[in-house]
Design goal:
alpha+beta; Arc Repressor Mutant, subunit A; four-stranded antiparallel beta sheet; 12 strands; 25% strand; globular; WH_DNA-bd_sf
Length: 229
Amino acid sequence: MQIEAFSELFPLLMAANPETLEWLLSVAVEHEYPANRAVLMEDAWGNAVYFIVSGWVKVRRLSGSGEDVVTLAVLGRGDFFGEMAILDESPRSTDVIALSAVRLISISAQRFIQTLFKDPQLHHRMLQLMVRRLRQTNLRFQLRHQPPAVKLANTLVSLGENYGQEVQHGIEVFNIPFKDLADVTDIGVEETAKIMEKLDSKGWIKIDTVGQTVLLINLKQLTHLAGKI
């Protein structure tokens, strides 16, 4: 991967200087995983930072018995994970699973921390993105009493804004399984299925189960439903 493409793909790295980007690329390790494969197990947290080159992953919270599993977040192309565990060495009870075929780049914890100390612009940018994630968590908390359709619209709009690909008739995102979509939205699975089917019938979205995509056709209406206008 060229330095320019590396910087453009990952918002975290846009502020980094060329020397930093060159160094990170030189020590990066590439990974590929098929759908449903564990990308990062709970005992591996804190070893590296992972950057998503393509595909989609979910971050899950595990119970002590491993029977109660909840999806905390869905991440796509251009995002990263593992940075919190580098700063916080406490035991983890989460793992990361590939929702689709996924390509990743990893950088070891030690080397990434060294880079943060050497490049203050990258350090500042990382803090900005971490604050942004905290704001998204706060928004989810604020929405807890909103109707399920409003909450789901917020999730769809956020996925489109953060990871969606512009195509001819709208914004395309991965067709996330209803269980995972329900978890990150904090609503029931049956509610999720009904709302998605209704949005499809209204022509606001188009679900392609074969291509495993959801096309956000009427983003304006979805945004209005989400209460962001």
